[in-house]
Design brief:
- The strands form 2 sheets. The protein has a 7-stranded antiparallel beta sheet, with no helix packed on it. A two-stranded antiparallel sheet has the order 2-3.
- It contains 2 helices and 9 strands, in the order E-E-E-H-H-E-E-E-E-E-E.
- Helices cover 11% and strands 47% of the residues.
- The chain has one domain.
- It is globular.
- With 123 residues, it is mainly β.
């Protein structure tokens, strides 16, 4: 699987429990995508929402899907890399379980970043 992406750090906010939420961090590098944030807040329970580390609109080229590039939102959490539809997120799909990653390579071609993830078939 190849993911073409930049990195978006999510802004943070104080929750009622006093914890800092990963969503709405004050040091956001890029403008937030309100559709994705609203979708994540609506879909995930609070204990999973604080585990979201970053998200980005990406072009994914999955070898299992015939290699056709598809525009998706990629969400990175403590436990895995999830994808959802772009431009209208509908459901989260666990694309990569972080325990299955063997290696990650980043190739920068001018302003395009290509991340190649090698996944183990056996856990």
């Amino acid at each position: 699987m190849s993911v073409n992406s930049g990195v978006r750090k999510l802004p943070s906010e104080n929750t009622s429990s006093g914890r800092r939420s990963v969503l709405n961090r004050s040091y956001s590098i890029k403008p937030v995508i309100s559709k994705v944030e609203t979708f994540l807040k609506r879909t995930l329970p609070p204990e999973d929402l604080i585990k979201v580390r970053t998200y980005e609109s990406c072009v994914i080229k999955d070898s299992d899907d015939g290699g056709n590039p598809v525009s998706k939102y990629v969400i990175v959490t403590n436990s895995g890399i999830f994808t959802t539809d772009n431009p209208h997120p509908k459901s989260l799909v666990l694309t990569v379980d972080l325990t299955a990653i063997v290696s990650v390579d980043l190739v920068s071609i001018k302003t395009v970043h290509i991340i190649t993830i090698v996944i183990s078939d056996v856990l």
